[in-house]
UniProtKB/TrEMBL annotation:
Its EC number(s): 4.2.1.1
Catalytic activity: hydrogencarbonate + H(+) = CO2 + H2O
Classification of source organism: Bacteria, Pseudomonadati, Bacteroidota, Cytophagia, Cytophagales
Function according to Swiss-Prot or TrEMBL: Reversible hydration of carbon dioxide.
Protein family (similarity comment): Belongs to the beta-class carbonic anhydrase family.
Protein name: Carbonic anhydrase
Residue spans crossing the bilayer: none
EC top class named in words: lyase
Xref: Pfam families: Pro_CA
InterPro entries reported in the protein's UniProt record: Carbonic_anhydrase, Carbonic_anhydrase_CS, Carbonic_anhydrase_sf
Length: 207
C-alpha cells in the first residue's frame, strides 16, 4: 500500500484559506458567526461519496451525518441527536437520505457473510432484503439487483425517519418536514431523485 503524504492536505488548506481571504475578505468572519444550513443530509461513509463536491456546496449549506450505507437506526443515538438538533435547533425542514450505487455495505449485507462487528449494523439492511425478498429475486442481473437494493434501502430509511419520535413530534407541532430520497451514480456522476424516477407522490414519502 502506497504511503500518503498528509502534509499535502495542510498545504492545500493554507492555499485555500489565503485565496478565500483574497476573494472575500469577510468570508471566515461570517462563518464564525454561526450556521444556518438548508438541509440535513444522511449519507454513506464511503470515501467516494462527497456531497459537497458532487452538489457544489459552500461551507454551511448542509448539515451532514454519515455512516455505513446511510442507515437510519432507531437505536443510533448519534443520528437521532443530529436529527433532533437539525430540526429543533437549526430549523431545518428538508432531510435528504443520500445513498449510492456500488455501496459496499449493501453488498456485504446481501452476500450475508460473517464480517465481525459490522454484522450488527448490516442487520438493518438485511431487514430491507427480507421485506423485499420477492421483488429482488425477480431481478436476474446481479448488478441491477444490488442497485435496486440500494434504492430500496434509501426508501426504507425514509420510512425509518418517519417512525422516529423526532419526526412525529415535529409534525405534531406543525413543522412541514420534507423528506428526499437521492442516489448517487458513480458511473455517470449524476444524482437520481427516486421520487422523480418512480413517480412517488410527496405524501407517500413525507413532503
Amino acid at each position: 500500500m502506497c504511503q500518503i503524504d498528509l502534509n499535502k492536505y495542510l498545504d492545500f488548506n493554507k492555499d485555500w484559506a489565503t485565496e478565500m481571504r483574497a476573494l472575500q475578505g469577510d468570508y471566515f468572519d461570517s462563518l464564525k458567526e454561526g450556521q444556518a444550513p438548508k438541509a440535513l443530509l444522511v449519507g454513506c461513509s464511503d470515501s467516494r461519496v462527497s456531497p459537497s463536491k458532487v452538489l457544489g456546496l459552500e461551507l454551511g449549506e448542509l448539515f451532514i451525518h454519515r455512516n455505513i450505507a446511510n442507515v437510519v437506526s432507531h437505536t443510533d443515538l448519534n443520528f437521532l441527536s443530529v436529527m433532533q438538533y437539525a430540526v429543533e435547533n437549526l430549523g431545518i425542514n428538508d432531510i435528504i437520505v443520500y445513498g449510492h450505487y456500488g455501496c459496499g455495505g449493501i453488498k456485504a449485507a446481501y452476500d450475508n457473510q460473517t464480517n465481525g462487528l459490522i454484522d450488527n449494523w448490516l442487520a438493518n439492511i438485511k431487514d430491507v432484503i427480507r421485506h423485499h425478498k420477492q421483488e429482488l429475486e425477480m431481478i436476474a442481473d446481479e448488478t441491477e439487483k444490488l442497485n435496486k437494493l440500494v434504492e430500496l434501502n434509501v426508501l426504507e430509511q425514509i420510512e425509518n425517519i418517519k417512525q422516529s419520535s423526532i419526526y412525529k413530534q415535529a409534525i405534531a407541532r406543525g413543522v412541514q418536514l420534507k423528506l428526499h430520497a437521492w442516489v448517487f451514480d458513480f458511473s455517470t456522476g449524476l444524482v437520481h431523485d427516486l421520487k422523480r424516477k418512480y413517480n412517488i407522490k410527496p405524501a407517500m414519502i413525507g413532503g
